[in-house]
């Protein structure tokens, strides 16, 4: 009898306690999230909106608050002369801007291509069992750990036209017939930037690919070995397809990063129109040329480009998530 | 037999190439930093002369010691601030189910992809309005834009892996979410905190664009900007020896940290990179 009187209240009580606990947790979660969200709104959300707003005004560096709204004038505007000729002006017809867009795209695609190929090679080496593997792993972390500015300066010194060790090495090995001013000449400036960037970022790519390689079960290779499949064929038929998700995500991640490159180019090849990227020209206009609104328009366009690519990245990331391989 | 020898030799040759290319520029910077006078303009592959001159001038001329202090202060404060805000947020995002959670996570991931230049104009206005332009606080404030999303994301992935039983036991004992975080999860999270903190520290230590834009005097600059703007008497007189000495000083602590925490950093990078 006594058990019958005890059980019903317990059942009745259980539900409210659980949901009370849940709502308490959700309430706590809200309080825990607010500081972070406020911080992000102040440092990211609001400044982004203001940058976009400035791109539609005639703001200047010294006079931010009396800016007048000018619509799309910074992006494109036209006047028709009496002769009937129309003259276009603004960002969308600015050859300097399109040169920067082209430089950025060229830099991003070429650097990420080499980083993916070389990163794959380094990752395959690190995935093999051999003596001294930990030394190699430590060694490739060094380029990654060095600050970009420092690596730019180190390479600027190594690429120096008169006293640079790379010119010396090239002459000794007979690869160069004369000393090259790598960072100063328009036709080699981009190559110099690419060399430094590939050197610095390949380790990152290699580590991401290595993480993907280590998830491939070893018995697949054992089975392939028994069937006598050639190692090269093993790579293209087993390794590459299985590591592709990790590799793709790494590539898109790197592409996004390469699209916004600023520091390396600003330090290694200052004032070279052969290497100026979107970030470099945007900052020039914002703070050096006193064309604040015009620079804002450029950064807004860059943001739009990267936003589209980010959406793509997140979408691809989610596809992989639902694919159930983790 | 011969074939297997060739294969082994080729493999180790490749290993050697990878190691030499990775290490050589840093080695050469160290080599250069210990040269002075005319020795600087001789190409040497091995150490031939040794002098502390460049290191002495880095510390005696200009504001470099001050720049170093600025960098340490800015990076440390940024990391502590980000970790403080991220731990509680990561708890909410990983352990509590609520509507809009995945949307929120995607937004945070999106912010970490932000091109810094896109917020530069707006941040400049905010920093001027707050009156912190040309102070370390301008940098601590603006660095939050990349350290916070990163730490939140990595700590969320880490907390998700912690077993639910621990938390249930604490709830049964009547622990509030705050107690669960501080008393139950934090002690378990030291490895993750060290890893994310270290990666965020490296990010803040190396940052250039904001540091260049939001500081304007020698005394408030951080080291990357100081190194980038180091110049000699004239445009054609670049003090390479001093630049290399400063570079080595800035890089050695990072390289030591990275080598000591190798495994942790690799796991943190893959958590922050592959998954987001």
UniProtKB/TrEMBL annotation, chain A:
- Family annotation (CDD domains): TM_PBP2 (cd06261)
Which InterPro entries does the UniProt entry name for this protein? MetI-like (IPR000515), MetI-like_sf (IPR035906)
Q: Keywords in UniProt for this one?
A: Cell membrane, Membrane, Transmembrane, Transmembrane helix, Transport
Q: Does the keyword Transport apply?
A: yes
* Compartment(s) of residence: Cell membrane
Domain ABC transmembrane type-1 intervals: 101-313
Say if the entry is tagged with keyword Cell membrane: yes
Membrane disposition: Multi-pass membrane protein
Principal place of residence: membrane
Q: Which residues cross the membrane?
A: 28-49, 105-126, 138-158, 189-213, 234-256, 292-316
- A Pfam match is BPD_transp_1
The record's comment on protein family reads: Belongs to the binding-protein-dependent transport system permease family.
Question: What is this protein's record name?
Answer: Sugar ABC transporter permease
Native species: Devosia algicola
Automatic annotation (TrEMBL), chain B:
The organism's superkingdom is given as Bacteria
CDD domains attached to this UniProt entry: TM_PBP2
Cell compartment(s), UniProt: Cell membrane
Q: Alphabetically list the UniProt keywords.
A: Cell membrane, Membrane, Transmembrane, Transmembrane helix, Transport
Q: Which InterPro entries match?
A: BP-dep_ABC_trans_perm (IPR050901), MetI-like (IPR000515), MetI-like_sf (IPR035906)
Enumerate the transmembrane spans: 12-30, 68-91, 103-124, 136-155, 184-205, 238-261
How does this protein sit in the membrane?
Multi-pass membrane protein
- Signal peptide (from-to): none
Q: Tell me where in this chain the ABC transmembrane type-1 domain is found.
A: 68-261
Q: Does the keyword Transport apply?
A: yes
Q: Which family does it belong to?
A: Belongs to the binding-protein-dependent transport system permease family.
Annotated protein name in UniProt: Carbohydrate ABC transporter permease
């Amino acid at each position: 009898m006594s058990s019958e009187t005890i059980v019903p209240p317990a059942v009745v009580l259980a539900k409210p306690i659980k949901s009370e606990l849940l709502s308490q947790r959700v309430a706590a979660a809200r309080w825990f999230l607010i500081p972070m969200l406020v911080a992000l709104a102040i440092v990211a959300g609001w400044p982004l909106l203001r940058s976009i707003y400035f791109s539609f005004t005639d703001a200047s560096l010294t006079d931010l608050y009396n800016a007048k709204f000018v619509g799309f004038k910074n992006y494109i505007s036209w006047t028709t002369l009496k002769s009937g000729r129309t003259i276009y002006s603004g960002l969308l017809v600015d050859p300097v801007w399109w040169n920067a867009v082209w430089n950025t795209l060229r830099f991003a695609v070429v650097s990420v291509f080499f980083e993916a190929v070389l990163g794959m090679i380094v990752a395959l080496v690190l995935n093999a069992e051999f003596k001294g593997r930990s030394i190699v792993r430590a060694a490739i972390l060094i380029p990654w750990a060095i600050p970009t500015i420092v690596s730019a300066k180190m390479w600027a010194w190594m690429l120096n036209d008169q006293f640079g060790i790379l010119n010396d090495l090239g002459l000794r090995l007979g690869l160069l017939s004369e000393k090259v001013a790598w960072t100063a000449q328009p036709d080699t400036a981009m190559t110099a930037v690419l060399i430094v960037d590939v050197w610095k970022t390949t380790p990152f790519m290699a580590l991401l690919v290595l993480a993907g390689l280590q998830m491939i079960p070893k018995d697949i290779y054992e089975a392939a070995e028994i069937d006598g499949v050639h190692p090269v064929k093993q790579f293209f038929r087993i390794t590459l397809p299985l590591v592709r998700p990790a590799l793709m995500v790494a590539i898109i991640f790197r592409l996004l990063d390469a699209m916004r490159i600023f520091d390396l180019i600003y330090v290694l090849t200052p004032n070279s129109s052969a290497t100026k990227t979107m970030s470099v020209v945007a900052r020039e206009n914002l703070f050096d040329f006193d064309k604040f609104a015009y620079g804002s328009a450029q950064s807004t366009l860059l943001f739009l480009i990267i936003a589209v690519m980010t959406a793509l990245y997140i979408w691809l990331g989610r596809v992989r998530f639902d694919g159930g391989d983790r | 037999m011969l074939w297997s020898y060739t294969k082994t030799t080729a493999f180790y040759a490749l290993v050697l190439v990878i190691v030499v290319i990775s290490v050589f520029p840093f080695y050469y910077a160290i080599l250069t930093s210990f040269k002075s006078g005319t020795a600087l303009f001789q190409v040497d592959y091995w150490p031939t002369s040794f002098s502390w001159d460049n290191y002495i001038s880095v510390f005696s001329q200009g504001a470099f010691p001050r720049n170093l202090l600025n960098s340490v202060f800015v990076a440390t404060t940024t990391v502590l601030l980000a970790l403080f805000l991220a731990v509680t947020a990561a708890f909410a995002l990983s352990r509590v189910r609520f509507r809009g959670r995945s949307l929120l996570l995607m937004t945070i991931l999106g912010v970490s992809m932000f091109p810094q230049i896109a917020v530069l104009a707006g941040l400049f206005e905010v920093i001027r309005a707050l009156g912190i332009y040309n102070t370390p606080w301008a940098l601590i404030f603006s660095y939050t834009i990349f350290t916070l999303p990163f730490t939140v994301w990595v700590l969320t992935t880490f907390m998700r892996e912690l077993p639910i039983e621990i938390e249930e036991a604490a709830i049964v004992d009547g622990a509030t979410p705050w107690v669960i975080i501080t008393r139950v999860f934090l002690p378990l999270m030291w490895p993750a905190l060290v890893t994310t903190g270290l990666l965020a520290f490296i990010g803040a230590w190396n940052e250039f664009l904001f540091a260049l834009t939001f500081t304007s005097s020698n005394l408030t600059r951080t080291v990357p900007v100081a190194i980038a703007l180091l110049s000699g008497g004239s445009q054609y007189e670049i003090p390479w020896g001093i630049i290399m000495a400063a570079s080595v000083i800035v890089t050695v602590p990072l390289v030591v940290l990275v080598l000591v925490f190798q495994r942790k950093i690799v796991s943190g990078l893959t958590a922050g990179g592959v998954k987001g």
